């Protein structure tokens, strides 16, 4: 047998392998999307909030922030996406001033 020709069974096996890779890739992308669509949890946000300098558990700022986060998934997600602590506090104070 010369090189170049691929047997029927080998060709089907390769196609099945490609199909499996595609399904696995789509499943992985779907799982990532679903995880992202659930958004930030209250416990995540509270942990981040309490890690900020000057934010005391039970303080007016803390209580106001909890009220904001209870009512808005979007606000929780924005807060969690801000990496810098000072910018988190600036954004939080800005949002609370609008209320």
The structural domain count equals 2
How many β-strand stretches? 0
Number of helices: 5
Radius of gyration: 25 Å
Biggest β-sheet strands, sense, barrel: none
Shape: rod-shaped
- The structure class reads mainly alpha
Low-confidence stretches: none
Molecular structure report:
With 99 residues, the chain is mostly helical. It has two domains: 7-38; 42-98, no CATH class. The chain is 76% helix and 0% strand. It contains five helices and no strands. It has helices at 8-38, 42-51, 60-71, 73-81, 85-97. The mean pLDDT is 84.
Secondary-structure topology with pairs:
Elements: H1 8-38, H2 42-51, H3 60-71, H4 73-81, H5 85-97
List keywords for this structure.
99 residues; mainly alpha; rod-shaped; single chain; 2 domains
Compose a concise summary of this entry.
The chain has 99 residues and is mainly α. The chain has helices spanning 8-38, 42-51, 60-71, 73-81, 85-97.
